[in-house]
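Issue 218. Parser rejects a valid record. Input:
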Amino acid sequence: MKDEASTFGKSDTDASVFLNAYIDPFETLGSALSFKLSKDLACDENQEGFSQDYLFQELNKTFADEEILSGVIKDLLAVKKRDPAATGFLMTLLFSKGFLALQSHRAASNFMISKKTFMAFYLQSQSSKNYGVDIHPSASIGNGVMLDHATGIVIGETSVVEDDVSIFQDVTLGGTGKITGDRHPKVRKGVLISAGAKIIGNVEIGEGAKVAAGSVVLEDVKMNTTVAGVPAIAVGKPATDSPAKTVDHSIKD
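Output the parser choked on:
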């Protein structure tokens, strides 16, 4: 990533000034990510709340954890491999709001587990405000996940998203109403959820399934099945076992 920064800095004066602040001072990916998130998510100077310095220290401790950092790296690799607009790791770290919202969630989830509930919900709120992505701190999200474009994504409290899933803008993993308990979708490994899809209730989206754009899913989806429509019905099978990785949104499988 520092090699990418050096290349940009040599060819673009504006980039050089930016990178001198966000990349060059840091020796680790976790520290650079913590600085970026803390700059984005800290309260304004005129507001009561967590300062940028305090957030940086707390986030830096979180991303020093090898397991959490491994998830960050796998997410970076997922974006590089699946998003044709991704020009490198550097631009994803600095400017991909889907990636940044997901890493904010990783930190919030860790704070939730550590009983730092206020900090967890603070990060959720600020991430929703700044990135347009609302993920409950208690939601479980695996590694190698891509949130592409990401605006309008909502992932509810008891949702489970397993490894190697791709989710596009305006997707909702929501509950059915006022019921409590385990009430949100379970998205298994390798699933592709296209733009605008709504998956409602404690339903299971089987491994390697594909949910077409604009679909409303109210029932379980079998593994390696493509569903489409309102309400969604089976319309075929994906061409591969992991449509999240091939990112083919067509439904003519």
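Fixed in the parser; the record now loads. Residues 66-82 form the longest helix (17 residues).
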